[in-house]
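Please produce the structure of this protein holding calcium ion.
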Amino acid sequence: MKRLILIALSLLFFLYGCMQNPPALQDGNGSIELKAVWNKSVDSIPDLVPLQNAKVILSSQYGMEIYYTGTDGYLRLNHLPSANYNISVKAPHPVDPTIILVGSIRNVNIISGQVRDSTVTAEPVSSSGIAINEIYCAGPVNNIFYFYDLFIELYNSSDSVKYLDGIQFMRVSRTNNGLMPGGDWYHDGRMQGVTYIYKFPGRAGEKNYPFNSKQFLVLAGDAVDHRKAVSTSIDLSNADWEFYNQYMAADIDNPNVPNLINLISSNTTKFLIGLNDDIVALASGVDTVWTDGIDISTILDAVQYRSNVTLPKYIDDRLDRGIVQAPARYSGKSMQRKEPGMDTNDGSLDWEILPAPTPGTQ
Ligand SMILES: [Ca+2]
Ligand SMILES: [Ca+2]
Ligand SMILES: [Ca+2]
Ligand SMILES: [Ca+2]
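Below is the modeled complex.
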């Protein structure tokens, strides 16, 4: 019996390993000559220059591969299988470390025996270096509707220490007379529809809570071992932070895990986000007044996720141009950026579904 269990377990681990490492791109006879450029111009006359040493993410039905452009801004690849490719590029700005250059093209059809010429034009976007890297909210596989094991993972992709003081995390799901969440309803540069807003201790600009370069942070709904409730769930008792609603009669509070606290006193329910459909955002905390909306310029990262990505997109284009594909409810699956912190502000391309959550790692 023991032996059987061992065999079953090793088979499981083997299958899990296969899911974790999809096969590398298959061999084929397609070629691409990809040119990456960015617009250096500060006026209306374009000044396109080659994007050197840019990270290029090539994804297709065969998986995902990472390459870099040369000093001439070109990436030339042969032996690609025929497929439709989505291509994202990302590079640091040559002078300004607060800006990154990002661009993407979709459905580049590569055909066996042909060389496909493509150009991707990157645009400058401001980069705080802090991104929402993983969202696990589907709930574990279970039949008692348990979904309290949610967590958000943040990542600091910059080369410097950032500070969490005053940073806000919010759920954005409120509508208003047909106006949808995540939009700039009053055309005043503010995002509307905030339903939950929690904050790290302190104020923006203070430096008491460091967030180190290349560090992952796990923000748990409840920082407890959820396997005690549902065996297929996960242990979040070692999370870095915990959402704690001080306006609720008895929210769970692991004393060893520091808290983000609730800014909406009328909200007396537990911190939750949609299991398969919602908008979440992270803001610097410079805009401390949420009631009139959150200044888009202070939002560090925001994404809309939906299990049905054919439904409409609500989030303002300045925050993200796509929709993250979410897994089904109670699937135990998670959503994560394809590369740590890789954020081109197109959730449709930047994210992937994980077979199981990975709190604190990629
Ligand atoms: Ca706590
Ligand atoms: Ca405001
Ligand atoms: Ca973003
Ligand atoms: Ca992760």
